[in-house]
Amino acid sequence: MESAYLTAVTQVSERHWHALDDDRVVGRGEVSHRPDGRRFLSVDTWQGSVFDRLAEAMLARLPRPLYTVVDEADVDLLSGWERLGFAPRRREWEYVIPTDPQLTGLGPAQLAGVTVLPAGAADEGALGDLYRAVRAEVDATLGWHNMPAEVLSRPDGSPLLDPARFTVAVESGGYVGLARVAPLPRQPRIGLIAVRADRRRRGIARALLAEVLGAAHQRGIPTASADVHQSNHPAIALLEGAGARRAGSNLELVLR
Description:
Number of strands: 12
CATH topology of the largest domain: Aminopeptidase
Helix content: 25-40%
Order of helices and strands: EEEEHEHEHEHEEEHEHE
Strand order of the largest sheet: 5-12-6-11-10-9-8-7
């Protein structure tokens, strides 16, 4: 039962808001700043009226556009944001991928002239050059804002790249492809697989995926996860070709 005595919504820090009912916290709101400069909101409460008051208080203090991400199956949360004027901007399919080569059909990478460096083996400078080149190519086609990968930046705006999270493909001494993995203990998350435009359609992305999944399998991890924009058909084909199954979808909403 919702309380009729909600007394205040208070901003307790630059990023956090609390909803109070007789000095008891009954809801929390947060704004997070993504590396690309966008602001994402989240509200944690089980009361619909508290959600509305918290979100409205946050909207009154924050510049637009504002964003949030919702599990598409969470109808109540989705309708709550839509009530406040948020509208769908993009959808990501969530995939679960087996790591066992017997299930994926992906053996050790064997591409003529291409070497796949495991996570942690890349040179940070060369990795940075590849990342910037890949980002420029994606920006010119899909648009980087449509990619699920989040890479932190230094104060000067340059990417903060941890080689421990990247598997890299090398050809003729140059870096030509990368896979970024968040090494979560139970289910690693593949945030990005990208190959230089002039090196695509040669099996390099498949070789990167084979290395990432094979490394997880050797650690005894049965599955990995990945998020893919609904319009990224090559990435969907790559994952589904390795036995990935669609497990859900997330909607990114925006208020302009």
